[in-house]
Specification:
Elements: H1 3-18, H2 23-39, E1 43-48, E2 51-58, E3 63-67, H3 74-80, H4 82-86, E4 90-94, H5 110-124, E5 129-134, H6 137-147, E6 152-158, H7 174-183, H8 187-196, H9 198-205, H10 210-215, H11 218-229, H12 238-249, E7 263-268, H13 275-285, E8 290-294, H14 305-321
Parallel strand pairs: 3-4, 3-5, 5-6, 6-7, 7-8
Antiparallel strand pairs: 1-2, 2-4
Helix pairs in contact: 1-8, 5-6, 7-9, 8-9
Length: 322
């Protein structure tokens, strides 16, 4: 085990012992809870043209495809879109390629993923749906709107980890690099990192200033911590995480000027992944697109959750009634 791994393990051990339990017992208990949480979801798997694809449906009303971000899956998609379900939208939440029970094909491009979304809509007998992508999920949401315009009734790009001219993403620091190289492949190392320094994990993986989380309401603090801890088990998401890192490190330009669906792009100025530039590029390039930029909140829109989903609900109601 290398020096940094030993340091992380030691820090996690100290945290667990202070809490009154052994490291192994604490880790096993948390991992077991994570697996039970996933098994409790009412999710199904079907065979798309690219292999197995997991999905879940929540709510009644006009259909909306919720496409999760990095480190997610059907669970993250359902959690993010819960405010939409509560106000009358039918949320369709797939796990993207390489996440949880979805296959990881040899060509996991956004365009291939968009074709798998078409297969899912066909399975459900849905001709058209709005699509909402978050973070890295915006890549395949854009591909869906570009390649399958007759199936797309509206598009929401939430904190898009997509191309923008001249956009430069700052290289990760040494701790963030270690998390990405090792912690996102190992359930134990991920758990150990979160136990040892949750703030560092929020900064590195959620691209958000931890001080914003500390100053937020109890509900918001719980929501952000949920995003971080619900990545467990990362071992069931490692292939998808690798795809996302490869595709978002230097995202390729897409023909977004050809998108005909009504479009809403949302970001925050202090998102450390630099998605405000990508949101502005989408708004400039897609005819008639609307742009919504908040001054602060980081990549997970801390303190803005209720407002963000109200805006998305209003947008979806408008396009779905057209």
């Amino acid at each position: 085990m290398r020096r940094r791994e030993l340091i992380w393990t030691g820090l996690a051990a100290g945290a667990a012992l202070v809490a009154g339990g052994s490291v192994v017992q604490a880790f096993d208990a948390d991992l077991d809870r994570a697996r039970q949480r996933l098994s409790a979801l009412d999710a199904e798997v079907f065979e798309s043209r690219f292999g197995a694809m997991e999905y879940a449906i929540a709510g009644e009303g006009p259909p909306c495809l919720m496409i999760h971000g990095t480190g997610g899956g059907v669970d993250q998609a359902l959690a993010f879109a819960e405010p939409l379900r509560r106000v009358g939208h039918r949320v369709i939440a797939p796990s993207r390629f390489g996440y949880l029970r979805s296959a990881n094909p040899s060509d996991p491009t956004p365009q291939s993923q968009a074709l798998a979304f078409v297969d899912l809509l066909d399975r459900l007998g849905i001709e058209r749906a709005a699509i909402l992508g978050g973070s890295a999920g915006v890549l395949s949401a854009l591909a869906f709107a570009i390649d399958h315009p007759m199936r797309c009734s509206g598009l929401v790009a939430l904190v898009p980890a997509t191309y923008a001219p001249g956009r430069e993403t700052a290289p990760p620091g040494p701790v963030a690099r270690f998390i990405m190289d090792h912690g996102l492949r190992s359930d134990f190392l991920y758990w150990a990192g979160a136990k040892a320094n949750e703030d560092e994990m929020i900064a590195a993986l959620l691209a958000t200033d931890p001080s914003l989380v500390h100053q937020a309401s109890a509900n918001e603090r719980a929501r952000v911590r949920g995003i971080l801890w619900d990545m467990l088990p990362v071992s069931a998401r490692s292939a998808g995480l690798a795809n996302d890192m490869a595709q978002t490190l230097s995202p390729a330009p897409m023909a977004i000027e050809s998108i005909t669906a009504p479009t809403l792009a949302i970001s925050l100025e202090d998102d450390r992944f630099g998605t405000a530039a990508a949101a502005r590029h989408i708004a400039r390039s897609v005819p008639g697109a609307r742009l919504l930029i908040y001054p602060s909140g980081g990549h997970v829109w801390v303190g803005r959750d209720a407002e963000v989903w109200r805006e998305i609900d209003a947008f979806l109601n408008q396009v779905q009634s057209a």
